[in-house]
Amino acid sequence: MSTNMQHDWKHWRLRREESGLAWLDLDKADASANVLSSEVMGEFASVLDALDAAPPKALVIASAKPAGFIAGADIEEFSRLDSVLAARRLVERGWLLFNRLAAVGYPTLALIRGHCMGGGLELALACRYRIVVDDPGTKLALPEVMLGIVPGWGGMLRLPDRIGPAAALDMMLTGKAVDAKKAKRLGIADDCVPPRVMESAARIMALSGAPARKLPLKERALRWAMNGPARAKVADKARAQAASKVSRENYPAPFAIIDIWERYRGNALDVPAQDPSSLDTIFTSPTARNLVRVFFLQERLKAFGKDSDFAPRHVHVVGAGVMGGDIAAVCALRGMTVTLQDQSVERIAPAIARAAKLFERRHKGDQKQVRFTLDRLIPDPRGTGVARADVIIEAIFENLDAKRSLFADLEARAKPDAVLATNTSSLRLEDIATVLKDPARLVGIHFFNPVPMLPLVEVVQGETTDAEVLRRATGFVRRIDKLPLPVKSAPGFLVNAVLGPYMLEALRCVEEGVAPETVDAALLAFGMPMGPVELVDTVGLDIAVAAGKALAGEGAEPPRRLMKLVGEGKLGRKSGEGYYRWEDGKAIKGEAPQKGGKRRKPAPEPIPYGLAGRVIAPLLDATQRCVAQGVVADADLADAGVIFGAGFAPHTGGPMHYVANRS
């Protein structure tokens, strides 16, 4: 293989083989991941000029970085765009450049290993062939919708053409990634190969001259219908599905993607400026700016723990309830050996059964991997794992005396350098640490339910917590792929401190005669992922009462209906009834049983003006108090915590940002 040295490109390397095959490697200078910045795209145009002058027999585009293929466009550049004209130019550059790639006279192949996101997938779709490498890190997605924007460099045109409108719209409207095997199954990729043969496979396919794959007749007929006579029906169905989750007012991008596919063949540049789906509308929407802000908030949380080289191999969890069992399961999923302690094997068994179901989902039915992961999750009723553990997490019930007694025992048996962590949600670390010979060893690692789903973990620093212990705890949280939020020890820390007043105000509205369904509908319309009354039912009414002081506030009594329901054993989802009745894990809202087993849903009550604002107000006040009291370091971290821990409407940019920018 010979290397072409005559071009002075900073980010691209072109290599030519004697066979006539050319390899184009992207290696963005001074960056750990490849992103399609203006400079990278400008050089790519120059690369295509050089290839036009001396066409190869075929071209393979790959990444020279171990971290992945291409992570997408440069989000920092996008965030600095200062006009609609600049945004249109950015879209136009990518659209025309990838159209040019798609039109070259020689075969092109994208060799995809690692993350292939956004503009990276749009570049790959412009190639004739795609090979994905069967590697855990290989993920393909068009996640632009999560930033409030649309895949404008050809994704809305080529992905529906490649895999059909239904599957493509599902990917684009959710932003969800697919792994290598699913990419092959969907038809995004032409082949899925192991790493050891990826270059040989790419060489063979690129030089084969094979035509684009031909679909079976039945599939071709279905595609013709969905892209032709049934196009409007496909679009209407997608709109209805999007509208069931979000509103166009709060999240215009999903609806714009559907419109641009249906009416403009995926070309965002063709949409008139005054259209609700135009680039002008999308770019000037506060949602796009706020979701980009949320992206950078997430990146800031991901940066915590990067300075820690702590690599725990063994985690010991005390308490096999829903919280403790799920913490143990998540750690096992991340390759750690986990011992799970409770009073008996019988108490641990439900947690193991729940973990097995989680492993089935995450490993997509690969029984070998499920078994390996289950083998790492060890029932330990005697707590023998304490002596070997690098991290010990207490997740028992919220009782100060019980926690003190437990930690006195744990400290005596643990390794001197083991991290001692409590998952308490309402007790002060200083009160728990009084029994320890070395109180500096105690740190809070506070998870949220459901643990496998919610990304945030509060890392709590007590008055005496050692800095190295805190660093290790933060590093551990990143090792299990969660977002660590540093907080100071205070009642409820950040997330529970703001959720308590929010849920209480919602229950007060119910106490005053507003239907739970109406309260929840108001907050769903605001943009919350779940209504506050349903949230109370999901958390458990007994837990809401146990969190008493944080929920009720100073000098206030819990709502009488709440106390009555708890007294009757109606604890919400887990008991089958609370403010709602629950069936198969779902709240039954206002539905009355009819003859024949059918249910009739009455017309929803009108939402009183200002209801959402009333319920949100205590949350906003509590967030501001937490910032003022130093529970979190600054307003941005408060926004990050309340978005990723409490689900506060992302389109607002977070509660502090919302307060600062509302008119």
Global shape: globular
Assign a percent range to the helix content.
Answer: 40-55%
Tell me the domain tally: 3
CATH fold-level topology of the largest domain: 2-enoyl-CoA Hydratase, Chain A, domain 1
Low-confidence stretches: 1-5
What's the count of strands? 23
Strand order of the largest sheet: 14-13-12-15-16-17-18-19
CATH class of the largest domain: Alpha Beta
Instruction: Report the sheet-strand fraction.
Output: 5-15%
The CATH homologous superfamily of the largest domain is termed 2-enoyl-CoA Hydratase, Chain A, domain 1
What is the element layout, followed by pairings?
Layout: E1 2-3, E2 12-16, E3 21-26, H1 38-53, E4 58-63, E5 68-70, H2 75-79, H3 84-102, E6 108-112, E7 115-117, H4 119-125, E8 129-133, E9 139-141, H5 155-163, H6 165-174, E10 178-179, H7 180-186, E11 191-193, H8 198-208, H9 217-227, H10 231-243, H11 252-264, H12 279-284, H13 286-303, E12 314-318, H14 322-333, E13 337-341, H15 345-362, H16 367-375, E14 377-379, E15 391-394, H17 400-413, E16 419-422, H18 429-432, E17 442-446, E18 456-461, H19 467-479, E19 483-488, H20 495-511, H21 516-526, H22 532-539, H23 541-546, H24 548-552, H25 560-567, E20 581-583, E21 586-588, E22 592-593, E23 599-600, H26 611-628, H27 635-646, H28 655-661
Parallel strand pairs: 3-4, 4-6, 5-7, 6-8, 7-9, 8-11, 12-13, 12-15, 13-14, 15-16, 16-17, 18-19
Antiparallel strand pairs: 1-2, 2-3, 9-10, 17-18, 20-21, 22-23
